[in-house]
Specification:
The chain has about 325 residues and is α/β, with parallel strands linked by helices. The chain contains 11 helices and 9 strands. The protein is about 35% helix and about 20% strand. Helix 3 links the parallel strand 4 and strand 5. It is globular and about 55 Å long. InterPro entries: AB_hydrolase_fold (IPR029058), AXE1_dom (IPR008391), CE7 (IPR039069).
């Protein structure tokens, strides 16, 4: 894959007009209040993870609609008190998998909370444990999740996922191993988009975060993505609109409530993004659109940075980005200590 998007200089200045619905904040306040009508019912059950240096807890809590959402909480072995915490969201089709597969941040000395994405976990070898049993899941849509319920923001799949993500923060804060004042969110691809949404919505839920670290984030600047890439998962939307020709405006209106550009504007905490300039799945201009708008609500003084991987596709920085995050998380948590 060659570099197909804007030049890096133009990307750094790229601030497209991404219309936000007038009731964006009200919609999300209502959605979060609706979820809070159900008791969080967070449970943390210790399991044998077959590891010597990490302890793991099987997590269940009530997400959107009271649905049980699964996750893992990893902590350094023998932990007895609260720790700085990294909450992580998964990429598209990924699930929480086996407890030994993803626990880097616990190895670094933090509590590490991982949220299952409802209905996913089917293609990575990391099976999920959270079905999407919403009544809306069966509405007309293209195969996949991108168009499930897309005719109305009330029924769209990612309304459930984004609320689940905020509820994950609430659940994490209930653990005695989690310092509720020292939490950052992270994730790659879909997980990056969810982390941006969580950072934007946390304030509406009265949750104080310390930072947000989205890698090659998905779910940003939908309209631009559909114009310049036919790769999945964005391709699911294209295929849907190819058939349902009369729903283009309706679909774009719905997507505007979930766009990382619009939700990232609401964020008020520091951020460390990453982007890959040969990424045809999450095109660079969509990532920079979200990065450049991120924190607009907090003004120009918000601290943010973006790591650029010039010759990588959607894999992005991988271990290089994790190395950068290890430094960034340490600085974020130290500044709060």
């Amino acid at each position: 894959m060659a570099m197909f998007d804007l030049s890096l200089d133009k990307l750094r200045a790229y601030r497209p007009e991404v219309a936000a619905p007038a009731d964006l904040v009200d919609f999300w306040r209502r959605s979060l209040e609706k979820a809070r009508a159900d008791d969080l019912s967070a449970t943390f059950t210790p399991i044998d993870n077959k590891l010597a240096v990490v302890d793991t807890y099987d997590v269940t809590y009530a997400g959107f609609g009271g649905a049980p959402i699964k996750g893992w909480l990893h902590v350094p072995a023998g932990t007895t008190g609260p720790l700085p915490t990294v909450v992580q969201y998964f990429g598209y089709s990924g699930g929480r998998g086996f407890p030994h597969t993803t626990n880097l941040w616990a190895q670094a000395g933090y509590a590490h909370f991982l949220m299952d994405t409802r209905g996913q976990g089917y293609s990575s070898g990391n099976p999920g444990g959270t079905p999407d049993d919403s009544a809306y899941a069966g509405l007309n849509h293209a195969p996949g999740f991108m168009t499930a319920g897309i005719t109305d923001p009330e029924t769209y799949y990612y309304r459930r996922v984004y609320v689940d993500a905020v509820r994950a923060l609430e659940a994490a804060r209930m653990s005695p191993f989690v310092d509720p004042d020292q939490i950052v969110v992270t994730g790659g691809s879909q997980g990056g988009g969810i982390s941006i949404a969580a950072a934007g919505l946390a304030g509406l839920a009265g949750i104080n975060l310390l930072g947000c670290a989205p890698d090659v984030p998905f779910l940003c600047h939908f309209e631009r993505a559909l114009q310049i890439t036919d790769k999945d998962p964005y391709g699911e939307i294209t295929r849907y609109l190819k058939g349902f020709r009369n729903e283009v405006e309706t679909a774009y209106r719905t997507l505007s409530y979930f766009d990382g550009v619009n939700l990232g504007r609401l964020a008020t905490v520091p951020a460390l993004f990453s982007v890959a300039l040969m990424d045809a799945i999450c095109p660079p201009s969509t990532v920079f659109a979200a990065y450049n708008a991120y924190g607009d609500a907090a003004g120009t003084n918000i601290q943010k940075d973006i790591k650029v991987y010039s010759h990588n596709e959607h894999e992005g920085g991988q271990t290089y980005q994790q190395d950068a995050q290890l430094d960034w998380f340490a600085n974020i948590f130290q500044s709060r200590a």
